[in-house]
């Protein structure tokens, strides 16, 4: 995928998220600070009103206040008292006055004896009230409350207030604190957002949303269109991803992601290859009905182990064609050998005729023809399946070249009805061809016994029975359970993955058609394959 240059590429996903998150954090913090400021201002005003009401009520209810206003010199008693209350409570002024508004006290002594600036009507009627009024100290929030005498008559008035300037100073102090907290919150949120997005940028490799979307679409299309199987395994050998090809080859369930390869029900050798740490290069493995070529390699990023990538190729058809090719090659070699032998016999016949011994020439020629024709006639009469007959004729010639006699037993009889449903000719070639090849090898390597291979093919009790025996050394009893495992072989070979495949293919083909393979011992090894003639249909 070609990436655009830095000058023209769009902002990365991490950058876009950082910008969005920074804006959200800024808006939230600014809005919260604004609301907190309004609430602080309103709360400070309410607090000021409650404060002046409480102070005024305390002064009005004090017995000394009512006693002083009826004395000879109220200002001399009340002015120090008012100054002390003002200092103790933090209010801006405490004014005690006569009912007609003449002041007894004031923060500015020059104002004592002058008329109070403000409303007093409601207080003279015996009620306490608050107002915002501009007096000698400027705009203020004040309260006016009556002082009652012994007969519950209004003998004086008390006014306590806090200037708007003082309230504003308190609000500014709270707002500055809120702004400082907001800036700290914004800084912390910005740093946290940057760190989170820096990590996201590393994981997305600085790609934009369009690039990520395009990459996903391409990768998803590739995974679903390639015919080869693909598995991504985690470092602990769990399935991270399986494409359609891998699911089909291994018959994987829909919820396979996250499962360990050991729990997929695959053959032991294949499970060991997938869960091992050793790379695989073109290893051939068998499933229940497939021949699969497996390649596995580790994936790392720097020093991190990301797991492994496994590619799978279906080798089933190719393996079947390879078996047929081997059979054709055997036929060709047999024809070449027979051509050579026919040439030798022809030279012998010609020489006998040149020597004038025509009767001996005829007898020699017809004897050779009768032997070959007798075997061919016997085989064609017993075996109606042409591919099977051709296979046995070719294997007989191949065995003869190696000094092994291939014997088709008299009880061999295969009619058209003796071929199981769904059994293709290539499956017959796979099963019988591999069994006969192994038997020829075993008989040729036998110890002192006449090298022979006995083949029996017949229908018996609703099944096709293929029996191949040899005069070799046989299969040891402790090796019987491993004989059909891929890789098991008694023959040396340079490539372990290429050996021990024939009997595994036989077992696979038999199982695919509902049959079984039995191993026994007579003179040498005896392999019997039983295939049901008709497929069972489950109700």
Automatic annotation (TrEMBL):
<dbReference type="InterPro" id="IPR036890">
    <property type="entry name" value="HATPase_C_sf"/>
</dbReference>
<keyword id="KW-0418">Kinase</keyword>
<feature type="transmembrane region" description="Helical">
    <location>
        <begin position="12"/>
        <end position="36"/>
    </location>
</feature>
<dbReference type="GO" id="GO:0000155">
    <property type="term" value="F:phosphorelay sensor kinase activity"/>
</dbReference>
<feature type="domain" description="Histidine kinase">
    <location>
        <begin position="309"/>
        <end position="535"/>
    </location>
</feature>
<keyword id="KW-1133">Transmembrane helix</keyword>
<dbReference type="InterPro" id="IPR016120">
    <property type="entry name" value="Sig_transdc_His_kin_SpoOB"/>
</dbReference>
<dbReference type="GO" id="GO:0005524">
    <property type="term" value="F:ATP binding"/>
</dbReference>
<keyword id="KW-0812">Transmembrane</keyword>
<dbReference type="Pfam" id="PF02518">
    <property type="entry name" value="HATPase_c"/>
</dbReference>
<feature type="transmembrane region" description="Helical">
    <location>
        <begin position="175"/>
        <end position="197"/>
    </location>
</feature>
<protein>
    <recommendedName>
        <fullName>histidine kinase</fullName>
        <ecNumber>2.7.13.3</ecNumber>
    </recommendedName>
</protein>
<keyword id="KW-0067">ATP-binding</keyword>
<dbReference type="InterPro" id="IPR000014">
    <property type="entry name" value="PAS"/>
</dbReference>
<dbReference type="Pfam" id="PF17203">
    <property type="entry name" value="sCache_3_2"/>
</dbReference>
<keyword id="KW-0547">Nucleotide-binding</keyword>
<keyword id="KW-0808">Transferase</keyword>
<dbReference type="InterPro" id="IPR029151">
    <property type="entry name" value="Sensor-like_sf"/>
</dbReference>
<dbReference type="InterPro" id="IPR033463">
    <property type="entry name" value="sCache_3"/>
</dbReference>
<dbReference type="InterPro" id="IPR003594">
    <property type="entry name" value="HATPase_dom"/>
</dbReference>
<dbReference type="InterPro" id="IPR004358">
    <property type="entry name" value="Sig_transdc_His_kin-like_C"/>
</dbReference>
<keyword id="KW-0902">Two-component regulatory system</keyword>
<keyword id="KW-0472">Membrane</keyword>
<dbReference type="InterPro" id="IPR005467">
    <property type="entry name" value="His_kinase_dom"/>
</dbReference>
<keyword id="KW-0597">Phosphoprotein</keyword>
<dbReference type="GO" id="GO:0005886">
    <property type="term" value="C:plasma membrane"/>
</dbReference>
<dbReference type="InterPro" id="IPR035965">
    <property type="entry name" value="PAS-like_dom_sf"/>
</dbReference>
<keyword id="KW-1003">Cell membrane</keyword>
